[in-house]
Write a structure and sequence with these properties.
Chain lengths: ~200, ~200
């Protein structure tokens, strides 16, 4: 990716923040960048092509961020991942970008390229979660009767639901964070409260 | 609500199924109904006003369906609710309507009336779940250290996430159903697998 392409991708991000996905046009992206509309067309022959590349770059960055999630134990890593996906988002300077990404999700059924890319995001998250949970079971940290696939799927669904509710109905992300964290502490760790009372 | 209004609301549903939310117009609603565009304008002076009424009717029907969820025990009722929200949707004849409703969610940040109505849907679901969970605790069926607010919030978030993933990335609803059901069986019932191994 050369400098112009990098500039176009960054201008696309700023345009999404400002206008949302429905109003994303090549004209507006050009206005947000240092480049002419012709230069943008030279690099990307259509808005769809440009947007696909934008999602690919976003995906690469997302996978890097998932890889950077660290912690001594599997539970620490899982907590760090929930913090990244839920708690940290509350402080995101560009809430409008998250709104735009919900618009993009709603467009996925109409656009195969978008659907494919969004599936890749989901798959990256599930596979990180699955690995952390399996590591925790191997280390004797998580209950060995937990099914890593099922637990990773539930947490992924919960995280996506938290994002949707946060944007659509302003449901506080820290509620979702607490709920997901309690799930990890009780179900995965096997610290079910009933053990205390039985 | 008189016959014409009822007819307009039903035509709005069919129009959403066929064209999605982005392409919903008074013209198309008129074409789907037995009524003229002028008659529709007589009842609703704008598309936004009509759509708000549509969401209100949908909400009333949703609350009725929640009230109809029945079962002998709290757990049975919770299972029936998960079946209604997750398992049954797979067989929905109008998948496009669910797609349109995801578009509507993405519009909520831009439209206060829509956001208010969608919050009411969320609140109705949470309050049904909270009541079922609290009933189950009172009856000694669910673990008494479960926090009904937190558990109802997690299940609501999971259900909304399941809907979003189903539409956006074609994630099978029965996976989400299984994951949510396992959560109920282990966390709420206190049948944590660790109890067997401890």
């Amino acid at each position: 990716m050369n400098d112009s392409e990098q500039e176009i991708i960054e201008a696309t991000y700023r345009t999404l923040c400002e206008y949302g996905y429905a109003n994303l046009t090549m004209r507006r992206i050009a206005d947000e960048s240092e480049l002419s509309k012709a230069t943008i067309h030279y690099h990307y022959d259509s808005k769809d092509r440009l947007f696909k590349t934008f999602l690919e770059r976003l995906y690469e960055r997302y996978v890097d961020r998932l890889d950077e999630v660290s912690g001594e134990t599997a539970r620490d890593r899982l907590e760090a991942l929930l913090t990244m996906e839920l708690a940290d988002r509350e402080a995101d300077p560009c809430i409008n970008f998250q709104t735009a990404m919900l618009e993009v999700r709603a467009q996925a059924p109409y656009n195969e390229d978008i659907q494919e890319m969004l599936s890749a995001f989901d798959e990256a998250l599930i596979s990180s979660l699955r690995e952390m949970i399996a590591d925790g079971i191997d280390a004797g940290e998580f209950d060995n009767s937990v099914d890593p696939d099922l637990a990773a799927d539930l947490l992924t669904t919960t995280i996506k639901g938290a994002h949707t509710r946060h944007i659509a109905v302003q449901h506080p992300l820290d509620h979702s964070y607490r709920a997901a964290s309690t799930y990890v502490d009780t179900y995965l760790l096997g610290e079910n409260p009933s053990k205390v009372t039985v």
